[in-house]
Design brief:
Blueprint (H helix, E strand, L loop, with lengths): L1 H26 L8 H8 L16 H11 L11 H12 L10 H10 L6 H17 L2 H11 L1 E3 L2 E2 L1 H9 L8 H9 L14 H17 L12
Antiparallel strand pairs: 1-2
C-alpha cells in the first residue's frame, strides 16, 4: 500500500512538473483557451469577456504603460528582477511588510497555470514555470499572452475586452492617457475602473505617463512599445 502511494505521488509530481514545459511549447503558437483564474471567476458567477489580439493589434502605448508600471526591466531580465526580490526580502526581514517583486514573466506564468494566492508552494511553481517560459518564449510572446489574459475587471480579460468595455474603442486605438489609466488599475482591477478613475488612480496614471518617457525606447524594443 505504501509503495503504491509513493508511486502515485511520484507520477503526480512528474505530471505537475511536465505541465508548464508542454503547455508553453503549445501556447507559443496557439492562444491559451482559458486560464485557472477565468474558471475560478466563472464558478463564482462572473462572466467571461475576452477577445484575443496579436501584439501588433494592441496599442504600443499600452505595451509601454504596462512595462513602465509593472516591470521596467522586462526587456532585459531573464524572468526575475533580482534587485526587486532582494528589496522585498529586506523589507520583510525588517518587518516593513512586503512589496511587489513579480515581473511580467512571473505574472504571466501565474495567470496561465496557477491560482491566486501568496503561499510558498504556489510561488515555487510560479518560479518554475517562469524559468521554462523564458527558455521557450521570446519576450514579445510573453507580453502578448500577458496582455491577452490579464484580468482587467470582473469578467474582463485582456486588453481588447477592457478597451472596448471602458473606452469603447479597440485596443489598437488606445491613447497614451487611456493606456496609463488601464495600467494604473492592474494591481486591483476588480476594485478600480480606468473609465471612472479616482483621484488616486489619476495620480498613478500621471506617474505611469512620466515613467513611460523615462523608460525610453531601449527598454521597450522587445515589445515595440512607444514611450
Amino acid at each position: 500500500m505504501l509503495l503504491r502511494l509513493r508511486k502515485i505521488l511520484l507520477w503526480t509530481a512528474l505530471a505537475i512538473l511536465l505541465i508548464p514545459p508542454i503547455g508553453l511549447a503549445a501556447f507559443r503558437v496557439v492562444p491559451p483557451p482559458i486560464t485557472p483564474l477565468m474558471l475560478i471567476r466563472l464558478a463564482q458567477g462572473e462572466g467571461l469577456t475576452r477577445t484575443w489580439k496579436p501584439l501588433d493589434d494592441i496599442a504600443p502605448q499600452l505595451r509601454a504603460a504596462v512595462i513602465a508600471s509593472e516591470d521596467n526591466l522586462f526587456c532585459e531580465h531573464t524572468g526575475f528582477d533580482i534587485g526587486s526580490i532582494q528589496d522585498a526580502m529586506d523589507d520583510w526581514e525588517a518587518g516593513r511588510g512586503t512589496r511587489g517583486a513579480s515581473t511580467i514573466s512571473m505574472q504571466t506564468a501565474k495567470n496561465l497555470f496557477l491560482w491566486p494566492g501568496r503561499n510558498l508552494v504556489r510561488k515555487g511553481l510560479e518560479a518554475y514555470a517562469t524559468v521554462w517560459m523564458e527558455l521557450l518564449w521570446p519576450k514579445a510572446r510573453i507580453a502578448e499572452v500577458y496582455l491577452n489574459i490579464a484580468e482587467w475587471g470582473p469578467g474582463l480579460y485582456g486588453a481588447e475586452a477592457a478597451a472596448q468595455a471602458y473606452f469603447h474603442k479597440p485596443a489598437a486605438k488606445l491613447t497614451r492617457r487611456d493606456a496609463a489609466l488601464m495600467a494604473a488599475v492592474l494591481p486591483n482591477p476588480r476594485a478600480w475602473n480606468p473609465a471612472k478613475p479616482t483621484a488616486y488612480i489619476q495620480g498613478r496614471a500621471r506617474t505611469i505617463e512620466r515613467r513611460m518617457h523615462q523608460v525610453g525606447p531601449a527598454l521597450l524594443d522587445c515589445v515595440g512599445g512607444e514611450p
